[in-house]
Amino acid sequence: MQQRSFDGSSCADESMVSDPEVRWHGARYEALTWRDWGGEVVVFNQETGSTHLLGEFAVEVLARLATSSDGATIGALAASLADDPSLAVDHDWTGAINDALLDFARLGLAHRGPR
Length: 115
Fold this sequence. Notes:
single chain; 115 residues; alpha+beta; three-stranded antiparallel beta sheet
């Protein structure tokens, strides 16, 4: 099965799917500078010196992680981001969150495991 990341690229295999019980942690909210450009947001990470252009969905996921003191699982993020509670267990919805988290890990905006 192929999964799509929030930037449209494809995750080639299932090994890239995260363990749903693992806690994810975002960069410290205080280290991020956010600028809205009409539907897309530029985020500057003061800790790495990197700047990232994120879409609305990615911004919501990153904001939830960055403001959570103890991180979050994919399931917890899915439930907190969903307008419809049934989406919290929807494979496509949790897959999109998983892909966003993997992209954040690659970009240095999030990591798995202990803070």
